[in-house]
Amino acid sequence: MNKHFDRKRRQLLKIMGGAGLAATTPLLIASQKPSEIITKPIPSSGERLPVIGLGTSRVFNVGRDVAELSKLREVVRILASVENSMLDTSPMYGEAERVTGDLVENLAVRKRLFFATKVWTDGRQAGIKQMQESQRLLKTHTIDLMQIHNLVDWKTHIETLRDWKEQGIIRYLGITHYTESAHDDVIRVINQTPLDFLQINYSLAEPEAENRVLPLAQQKGIAVIANRPFARGSLFRATRGQPLPDWAAEIGCDSWAQFFLKFAVSHPAITCAIPATSKAKHMLDNQAAGKGGLADSSTRKRMQEFFAVL
Questions:
Q1: Among candidates 212, 228, 219, 177, which has minimal Cα distance to 198?
Q2: Domain boundary assignment for the chain
Q3: Is CATH 3.50.50.60 the classification given to domain 40-308?
Q4: I need a surface site. Which of 54, 75, 177, 288 has the fewest CB within 10 A?
Q5: Which pLDDT value is given to residue 15?
Q6: C-alpha dist (Å) from residue 251 to 265, 272, 299
């Protein structure tokens, strides 16, 4: 990015800071070159996704606060600079779906993003009603990925999701969970029904999924989304005040966020990671982890050993 463009961008952002969501504006950040971006295929289709997406848990539940919405608007703008990036949300996240839909519509970037949300309720009709509400809030008829959140009433919802996939209302279906204690349940579901996606906790602080869950997902041809790639911030707390190892530059990392994300998305079973943020500078930093190359198995082991002694 040249200095003139960067200066103009800062000026525009300063002006926009108090402007709220009054008008639809084009992307201020130029689309990044496809050759710079690491993508991985969805096994069930071959469609490729950038390895860095965006989660909305907690950070998008901001109501109608103009200042917060302005910050999130820039985060979504940066995300959309990489085509087909995943934007993951849920009815569980307060107003996150509505905020997501408003921001994406305002920026006119729906076609550049891969929408993922969830069904999180009991009963067939309640599930249908909730998913229809998600369509309304996200302002889209077709949702790219619908997931059964934390396996809630999964046997009921999986039938609806199969029907909706056949009708083209959703493109992919999957399940989610975020704790190691649920891994046994996740494995049972994977073994019982075909899935396109699995969303699971995976990071340097929570690597347990690589023991059984990730190998099984690979075997079954399931794309895996790594949630909690920073382990709710515990990775940053563990490394506060610590310098990056010199060899981090060899894998294209110049921040701890990039180090943590590069570890997660370098696992062969992981399709993408969805770190949540409400800050543009963090979104840019996170996206940088999705460029260049992936860490090989020996480097990943080195990353784990380094983290273990901090």
A1: 177
A2: 40-308
A3: no
A4: 288
A5: 31
A6: 12, 17, 9
DSSP-based three-state secondary structure for 86: strand
User: Can you read off the two tokens belonging to residue 59?
Assistant: 């950070």
Rg (CA), the chain: 19
Mean local confidence (pLDDT), 129-157: 98
Given a contact cutoff of 8 angstroms between Cβ atoms, the answer to whether 145 and 114 are in contact is: yes
Residue 228 Ramachandran class (φ > 0 left, ψ -120 to 50 alpha, else beta): left
In terms of Cβ atoms closer than 10 Å to its own Cβ (0-12, 13-18, 19+), residue 134 is buried
Query: What percent of the chain shows pLDDT beyond 90?
Result: 88
Cα torsion through 81, 85, 91, 95, rounded to 10:
-10
Give the residue ranges of DSSP H helices in 202-270.
213-220, 234-239, 256-266
- Give the span between the Cα atoms of 282 and 78, in whole angstroms: 10
